[in-house]
């Protein structure tokens, strides 16, 4: 059997690097491809493994080699979760899982979310996730974490997309869905906060945080912004969708356009369902509304029994009834606490210069919420009992035991921190209420679609693939989507979308897998 024949069987791209990898394992590959087990169980797979995955030592494997050899990602995770953005996967579910002992996740990342372009490719995602799964499994075996899961909420699209998803075991999967109009409402008015900051004397970006001399009521509000993506696209100049700033302190309903066309983050359920179909066996289907209010606790009990993680505690029932999304983009917030910083409320005190030295010599304390997984992985870092907080949903974590010792030796600094953390928690609640007044309603999205008939045609076109799984297996869920049903009434007389010339210069397609 030649190298070329092996590459043909595995659909491996012929290159010097890939040929060298295959040559390295040739003594394992040829007997495996000739075996009855391969011919019976693997030969018909679109990307069959070139060595026996059952005999693979994943801990000692090179992810780059594993990719070339078509080896599945290590299936050490407890289950897989997939779905669109704005269904709760990046907010509510992280906290709800943490309360049930599921404190770590491994994610596929789109281009804008990856550290670099290579990491966003199918191969880059595979290699990174391979390593992260092994690390998480080591932590699990050592007892630091109890459970972890794999999340697919970003769609990875390139020439190797089919291969990437074919190497993911989705046999134990949770799929969360939501009314598409509610999805657009959520993403179009989603607040963001600076995650990193630049300080003098440091070449690196540091985690964004506050300092004792900064007024949280005044300073914090300046760092919440909205990504009004769609304002510069001009999908239809004559329709009135105009140009504007991409970042602002107020959301713009016209950004619905951008999100509607963003397959990487929204409305890719049908595509992902088809990509994962070869390994999908047991899908637990839930709606975002199942995790709201009184329903949430019972839903998590059901998922715990189904996927084998810890049931939520009755003492935590109140937490499962919280509106997790209100504080999602406001926390966690780091406080860099330093003796040389006066308290912001002190009059006529000179504030120090914020630089690398100040940051490095500061005690780092994080104001977060009870949904933060760190509380359950490293409970010894929870120092919430020292503070008066504006709401019991808040929690306070110190970065390290070394910082905890410094704090115990600095009673004057601790007194200032107590005042600041109390005020900061109040400022966060106040800011959350302000941001809530900026959010759109579903009726705002419907009114936008009423104004732009071409966008209704685009939406109808995209929904053909997005709702594929539900339309095939659970049409009653679609029938229960209150706002999507209103959209259908609104668009019932629209002509099918003609894409022969694109969309005013911007291409649009439903990927055919």
What attributes characterize this protein structure?
alpha/beta; 5-stranded parallel sheet; 4-stranded mixed sheet
Q: Oligomeric status of the shown chains?
A: single chain
**What is the helix content?**
40-55%
Instruction: State the shape.
Output: globular
Provide the β-strand percentage band. 5-15%
- For the terminal residues, how far apart are their CA atoms? 31 Å
* Broad structural category: alpha/beta
Strand order of the largest sheet: 2-3-1-4-11
User: What is the number of helical segments per DSSP (H or I, 4+ residues)?
Assistant: 24
How many strands? 14
Output mean pLDDT.
91
Described by strand count, sense and barrel closure, the largest sheet is: 5 strands, parallel
Give the C-alpha Rg: 25 Å
Low-confidence stretches: 232-244, 504-513
